[in-house]
């Protein structure tokens, strides 16, 4: 059902073919700065495994991967002292306007963010 493209940009980052500004790395997860930040804090958190979307990850990742991913999101929030708040976004597929087909969570923070849904 899920067909992963191993040439996507995040797969290439995970293979070390493209540099990234790492915020945190754990056994199953990598967190790094978005190349085109939409807020003062814009971090992407990705599983190291080959998952396309959040639902793919939630369906097929191991419990260790899922726990590690969530704990890494928490660790980024703690490390960057996001006590004033943050927003998590995981775009999926065409209607979700997902550009990179490797599951990722955006962490946005550092200013009062706008409404959740923008224009198409
Ligand atoms: P999506 O639209 O798929 O949810 O978000 C993809 C995100 O990846 C975008 O915010 C975009 O700026 C970011 N991005 C795309 N290419 C690169 C890259 O080569 N390096 C980094 N760090 N971020 C990237």
| Strand residue content | 15-25%
**Count of distinct strands:** 5
- Trace the largest sheet across and list its strands: 1-2-3-5-4
Q: Note poorly predicted spans.
A: none
Bound molecules: guanosine-5'-monophosphate
What overall geometry do the principal axes of the alpha carbons give? Answer: globular
Labels describing this entry:
alpha+beta, 5 strands, globular, 120 residues, five-stranded antiparallel beta sheet
Structure description:
The chain is α+β, with helices and mostly antiparallel strands and 120 residues long. It has 3 helices and 5 strands, in the order αβββααββ. Strands 1-2-3-5-4 form a 5-stranded antiparallel β-sheet, covered by helices on one side. It is globular, with a radius of gyration of 14 Å. The two termini are 27 Å apart. The relative contact order is 0.22. The model has no long low-confidence stretch (mean pLDDT 96).
Quick structural gist:
The protein is built from three helices and five strands.
List the helices and strands and how they pair.
Blueprint: H1 9-14, E1 22-25, E2 29-33, E3 41-47, H2 54-60, H3 63-79, E4 87-89, E5 105-109
Antiparallel strand pairs: 1-2, 2-3, 3-5, 4-5
The structure holds guanosine-5'-monophosphate (5GP).
């Amino acid at each position: 059902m899920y067909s992963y493209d191993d040439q996507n940009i995040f797969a290439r980052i995970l293979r070390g073919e493209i540099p990234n500004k790492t915020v945190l790395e754990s056994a199953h997860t990598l967190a790094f700065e978005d190349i085109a930040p939409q807020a003062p804090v814009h971090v992407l958190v990705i599983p190291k495994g080959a998952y396309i979307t959040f639902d793919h990850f939630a369906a097929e990742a191991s419990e260790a991967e899922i726990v590690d991913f969530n704990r890494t999101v928490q660790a980024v929030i703690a490390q960057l002292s996001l006590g004033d708040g943050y927003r998590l976004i995981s775009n999926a597929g065409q209607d979700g306007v997902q550009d990179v087909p490797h599951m990722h969570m955006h962490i946005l923070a550092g200013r009062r963010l706008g409404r959740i849904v923008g224009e198409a």
